[in-house]
Amino acid sequence: MRQILVRSAPPEQAIPPGRIGYDLDAPILLLHTIQTGVAYERLLSDGVLRPSPELAATEWPDAYAWMNRMMADRLPTTGDAALWLWARIRRYDLVSNCRRASRSSDPQVLLTCRIPRERVLLSQFDEWHSALNSALAVTMGPGETDESFESRYSEITDAFLARLEAANVRNSPISEWPADLRAEAERSWEYIFDRRRFDRRSYWQATVHEIRAEDVTDAVTIVGAPS
Fold first, then answer.
1. Tell me: the pLDDT tens digits for 46-74?
2. Which CATH number fits domain 6-125+203-222: 3.20.170.20, 3.40.50.150, 3.40.50.720, 3.30.70.860?
3. What's the whole-model pTM score?
4. Are 114 and 40 in contact (CB under 8 A)?
């Protein structure tokens, strides 16, 4: 297995200065993720890092289960859970993520990866919150004004909420919704995978079933700034 050289750096130096260089059209995608030191050691020892399903976020089990199903449908790889990476984010915000990681009591490692796009499912970060919130996703139509969209959005979501009220499940997990309402909401979320719907400034996240040692081009243990 190829050795991964790890260095230590404060958040501002963990990422090289200048433009990061993300390209969502590239056959090999540039991705970043912050993993625990324990996960990094497992990557070194096993040559591969896979997620632990028991460590998945517990606040949004239905949204994460849906994403796992989307990965099973759209990727050639298999697995029980996802590893999450950034596929496009401003350097300023990636540094901010590193600052938060530097305050952890456990070592945190920023991994720079290059992974073939066929192993990666890209999704738009902001609109992923429709799934997290168990909300119906309503998209803006071509040439639609903000005012027209807001009016249509209110009409559609109010009608959908009324149907949830009628089924007595408005405050219930989506897993307890009637099948037709659940299917309608989940179908609406799929637009987060369609890059044509979003502008070039959008932040994109990536999910994969595994990170292989050969995917990693840089590893940085994030340390706090000296006092």
1. 999 999 876 666 789 999 999 999 999 99
2. 3.20.170.20
3. 0.91
4. no
